Amino acid sequence: MPVTDTGGGHVRLRLDVAYDGTDFAGWATQAGQRTVAGTIDDALSTVFRVPVVTRAAGRTDTGVHATGQVAHVDIPAEAIPQAYPRTPREGPEFQPLVRRLGRLLPEDVRVLDVARAPGGFDARFSALRRHYEYRLSTAPFGVVPRESRFVTPWPRPLDVAAMQAGARELSGLNDFAAFCRPRVGATTIRDLQRLDVMRNGDEITAYVTADAFCWSMVRSLVGALLAVGEGRREPSWCAGLLAATRRSSDFATAPARGLTLVGVDYPPDDELAARIVVTRDVRSPDEVRRD
C-alpha cells in the first residue's frame, strides 16, 4: 500500500485519535453497528469525497476508550488540496482538516492531529508497543459521576501487593493463550513488557504494555489479577495459567468500562519499514521464555 506522495498516487496520513468508547461497538467497522472506525471513515469520506478506510494501531473492543490511538488513511493526492481551503496563516498543513473534523464528528470521538506519515509507516505493523491503563475504584460510593464512564467500580477490597506479585509472574515473552479469545491462524505469543498495579487512595490502576495484544487480552489479565486481589487465588496461580493452550475459564474478564488505550510507540522513521517485517513474522512456541 502507498505510504507517501507518489506523484499522482496516494498520500498516507497519520491520525492521532481519542474517544469515549461507551457508546461504540468497538473500533472495527461492523455492518449495522456504531463503531469508531466507521464514524471516522464517514467523516473523512465526506471531506475528501472518496471512500476512506481507517486502519488503527489497536482494534479496541466494545466499550473500551482511547486517549492515544494512532491510525492511518490513504488519500488520493489530488483529493487533498480540493478538500478544504487553506491559507498560510492557518498554521500546520492539516490544521484546517482537524478543525473541520471537529465539526463533523460526534463529541465522543476526536481526531487530535493529522500529519503526513513518513515512508514505511503503518499504524498497526510499524508499532513497537501499545500502552493501556485499567482503572478501578474501591470507594464505598462507587465512582464520582464525571469519571463514571471510565472507571470500574469494585465492590470488594483488593490486596494490591498480591496483585503486584501475580503481575510479576506474567511479565515477559510468553504464550498468553489463557488470556485470549481464539482466532484461527493467529499467534497468542506476546511480549508483556509492563504489568504494574498501583493504588492512589480508593483508585487502583493497572498499567499494561506489550508489543501487541490479542483479542480481550488486557481485560483478561486484569481479571486474573482481580481474582488474586480478592484472595480467591494465590499470586503463584498466575504462572500456571501460562501453561494453558486455550482460554481459561478460571476467572472472569474485567468489564470494558475501565480500560483505555493511552499510547502507541513507534521506532525512528528510518526503521519503520524494518519493523513491519518483524511484526509480520509470526512467533513460534520455541521463542517463549523457559525458566
Largest sheet: 10 strands, mixed
Distance between the termini: 41 Å
Q: Structural class per helix/strand content? A: alpha+beta
Shape: globular
The multimeric state of the shown protein is: single chain
**Parts with pLDDT < 50 across at least 5 consecutive residues:** none
Helix/strand order, N-terminal first: EHEEHHEEEHEEEHHEH
| Share of helical residues | 10-25%
Rg calc: 20 Å
| Overall pLDDT | 91
- What is the total tally of β strands? 10
Number of helices: 7
Strand content: 25-35%
Short description:
This protein has 291 residues and is of the alpha+beta class. Helices cover 23% and strands 25% of the residues.
Describe the SSE topology.
Elements: E1 10-19, H1 36-48, E2 55-56, E3 65-76, H2 79-83, H3 95-104, E4 109-116, E5 129-137, E6 152-153, H4 160-170, E7 172-175, E8 189-200, E9 203-210, H5 217-229, H6 237-241, E10 259-265, H7 272-280
Parallel strand pairs: 3-10, 5-6
Antiparallel strand pairs: 1-3, 1-4, 2-3, 5-9, 5-10, 7-8, 8-9
Helix pairs in contact: 4-5
Keywords:
291 residues; alpha+beta; globular
Describe this structure in words.
This protein has helices at residues 36-48, 79-83, 95-104, 160-170, 217-229, 237-241, 272-280, and strands at 10-19, 55-56, 65-76, 109-116, 129-137, 152-153, 172-175, 189-200, 203-210, 259-265. It has 7 helices and 10 strands. It has 291 residues and is of the alpha+beta class. It starts with 9 loop residues before the first strand and ends in an 11-residue tail after the last helix. Strands 1, 2, 3, 4, 5, 6, 7, 8, 9 and 10 form a 10-stranded mixed sheet that branches.
